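Fold this sequence, please.
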Amino acid sequence: MTGPLRGVRVVEFSEIIAAPLAGMQLSDLGADVVKIEPPWGDPWRHQMSDVPDESRTFIAFNRGKRSVAFDLKTSVGFLAPYLAID
């Protein structure tokens, strides 16, 4: 992806609308956005899903991102996002 933020990595810990919108805009500007989700996924994945685990709202606000699920309540899951930064 090209843009003024090419080469910048953003690790996004967010759900619902406001923060995912900001992450989407950063992605549109060229940033590499990695979305960290809980094991059950972002709640918007399941709202009015047309296909299993993919709603139109989720797809719209998370375009251009890579997603990974970690259980941040475990010691391994807590440390894993630090590896996503590298």
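Residues 48 and 77 are 29 Å apart (CA to CA). The helical segments are 18-28, 56-61, 75-85.
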